Amino acid sequence: MSAFPTIPAHFARPRAGEVDVLVVAGEHSGDQHAAKVVGDLRKARPGLRIAAFGGPELRAAGAQLLMDMTTFSAVGIVEILSAYPFYRKLFARMVDWTTQWKPKVVVLVDYPGLNLRLANELRKAGLSRAGFGETAVIQYVSPQLWAWKPKRRFTMARDLDGVGTIFPFEPAVYADTKLDARFVGHPFAESDHQPGLTYDPEGPVLLLPGSRPKPVRKIFPALVEAFALFRQEHPKRRALVLHTGGEVHAELYRLLAEYGDQAKGIDLRPVSEGPAAGCAALVSSGTMSLTVALAGIPGAVVYRANPLTWIVGRRLIAGRIDDLGIANILLKRQAWPEYLQGACEPVPLAARLRECVENPGPRTQAVADAGELLRMLSVPSGATPAEWVATFLPK
């Protein structure tokens, strides 16, 4: 857990004494997505007064940063409990600032654990339109209700004035509520916002076990052993592991040290160092699996969890989704084969790597699937996230 900053007794007043848009983005990915929206809004309406509880990307886009929310986090029960007083105080100050300065629109970006609680408080305070106030409170990036906690849509309909979804099938999830849910396109579908992965037939194998320590601990050993088997027939090939630093980097480094000679040819590199290329990928389910898919890199989706967690999780999503990889969910087929839990083993994973490297078929199919995904995730002009947010501003 990062050291927590001091929470000021009062956050800074808006630069112009008023604020049109308040953005709340509590994670690095949300900060990046929100910065793109703010940049587009300011191009269309240069005089907008925008403040943010976010991070450095939002500040660079021109928002007045009230507090950097991306520099601290709590992971695990003990850490969360010890951090509870900090989060309670921070949350109260955020509510106080928002109700005092009454922005015309509050844009809550992803991070539903914080943002949906904030929407509820703003409704109870009578600030939001849902609470008979004048501020539009909207959520950009819907929680994955199609997989987890679908009943949240009813409290969202009570507390929010709109939701902008990044997947085309998500508005239908809200069809039995009064909430205005619109597909506004996925950030990765925009050419200037696509993540930095590309295909290179001579490049390394990408081993991408995720961005959280516990899943990495479960998944990475199978990837190391699979690459070791693959390298027996392709001794000149190397592997690249992209990571987010901190505790994840430490866990990866520890596991590589444990494997010793079996981990030869595997390099670690922070995602922050810029674009990367690969010939094939073994990638944990989640956002990174979509990144790999959009890059047209062939490979497989992998996942392992604690057995009890796995059993409970599969029961919760039973009947709603069949696959875990986002690209596979969108395409309604396993375009990227999934090796989950007991199937996440070195021998079949090594065989999949050999298939991707030795045969042109997987790459050809991956390119076709990437094009289909890009079309599915794009929206026509007039329906972008910034244009959607602008519909809630006074004319």
Set down the secondary structure blueprint:
Elements: E1 21-25, H1 28-44, E2 50-54, H2 56-60, E3 64-68, H3 77-101, E4 105-109, H4 112-124, E5 136-140, H5 152-159, E6 162-165, E7 181-183, E8 197-199, E9 205-208, H6 213-233, E10 239-243, H7 246-259, E11 266-270, E12 276-278, E13 280-284, H8 287-294, E14 299-303, H9 307-317, H10 326-331, E15 338-340, H11 346-358, H12 361-377, H13 385-390
Parallel strand pairs: 1-2, 1-4, 2-3, 4-5, 5-6, 6-7, 8-12, 9-10, 9-13, 10-11, 13-14, 14-15
Helix pairs in contact: 3-4, 4-5, 6-7, 6-11
Key features of this structure:
395 residues, alpha/beta, Rossmann fold, 2 domains, 13 helices, 42% helix, globular
If you had to describe this structure to a student in words, what would you say it looks like?
Helix content is 42%, strand content 16%. The chain is of the alpha/beta class and 395 residues long. It has 2 domains: 21-185 and 379-390, Rossmann fold, CATH 3.40.50.11930; 197-377, Glycogen Phosphorylase B (Rossmann fold, 3-Layer(aba) Sandwich), CATH 3.40.50.2000. It has a 7-stranded parallel beta sheet, with helices on both faces. Strands 11-10-9-13-14-15 form a 6-stranded parallel beta sheet, sandwiched between helices. A two-stranded parallel sheet has the order 8-12. Helix 3 (77-101) packs parallel to helix 4 (112-124) and helix 6 (213-233) packs across helix 11 (346-358). The longest helix has 25 residues, at 77-101. The protein starts with 20 loop residues before the first strand and ends in a 5-residue tail after the last helix. Residues 75-79 have low confidence and may be disordered.
